[in-house]
Amino acid sequence: MLMIELNMYHAVALGAFLFWLGGVITERVTFLSRYCIPAPLVGGLCFSILNCILYSAGIASITFDGTLQTVFMILFFTTVGFTVSIPTLLKGGKAVMLCLIVSIVMIPLQNFLGGGVMEVFGCDPLLGIGCGSIALIGGPGTAAAFGPDLEAAGAVGGSVVSIAAATFGLVAGSLMGGPTAKRLIEKHDLYPETVAVGGTQGVGLATDVASEDERFITDSPRFVKGFMLLLLAVGIGNQVSVWLTALTDLTFPAYIGAMLVAVVVRNVMDGAHTEYPAEEIDTMGNMFLSIFLAMALAGLKLWELIDLALPMIVCLVLQCIVMFLFSYFVVFNVMGRGYDAAVMTAGFIGFAMGATSNAMANMQVVTKKYGPSPVAYFAIPMVGGMFIDFFNAVLISANISWWA
Length: 404
Fold this sequence. Notes:
By secondary structure, the chain is mostly helical. Helices cover 74% and strands 2% of the residues. The protein is built from 15 helices and two strands. The chain has a two-stranded parallel sheet. α3 packs parallel to α11, α9 crosses α10 and α14 packs antiparallel against α15. The longest helix is centred in the first third of the chain and has 35 residues.
């Protein structure tokens, strides 16, 4: 068999090409764009499938240096830390806090369900975390980041299982969110506060908060400032992760410390009324996530899934059932049993099974049909796109340490 080894420069070039390839495919395949499947995920999976075919046929095996993949992963999660504004969180009030609480409760539920199913099948329960909050609450980014940690703890195939489960979650979260909210709205005869009962629903929604203008005005110094802030947080955060590991006896990934430092830097700048390059850092975060995901998925060894296919299928089906029951009976009731609660339920399913983009897509479908929900559009991105990643990472690290 021909062994092809790519160095880290070849690997990052491959990741860039796969990101472009995934974008072309998602634009032309309606199913992928409808369910918000990320372009780097599509491109990376195409390569990993090709590599699997070559390996299975005994023709070739392609491997590459993942050094830059790790760097891009840490940089991406650091940008997530910079989005956490404590004053904004406090202004969000009750809805954000309640949504965050139910999201935190969902993390151990997903992990213990996954671990339990894997133990029933005689598999390593650590793989159950890969089918739990790593893939679902966390999404593809967290799955790619924690997969190597699972393998380091002894779970063979942890990366492949996590990414595969995350891919399933993206589709399942999109399929489940809208119908669940529709049932809640029609069963309880709910209406948005801005639409009078008996009025025409869906009219006058041109100002729906779902629409966003992704363009912004910037200049070179702002991008340089943002990048330097990222590097500062990464450098100091690495040492913070070392201290946290020593203090708690839990293994904290390098990006946890970087996220914490980023939160501190962001809020100190806000408190000092210093200009913060939010759009620039967010743009860099999207760049780092895209290249990181493309490289992570390209390196998957899909042939390792063969023996785990049945346990994974059972585990993920049960995760969907638990997610529906928890969202329908717990999230909806905790969030207030009103129209906003129903829309937030759709959003919760989106990010708790896949990603924040799925959550926004779910809510957009619901609000276009039934009316706007400003509360949901504020709370769900705050929790799903900002705060839950930190709590999820801490609980995942704790679960891995306990079960290892």
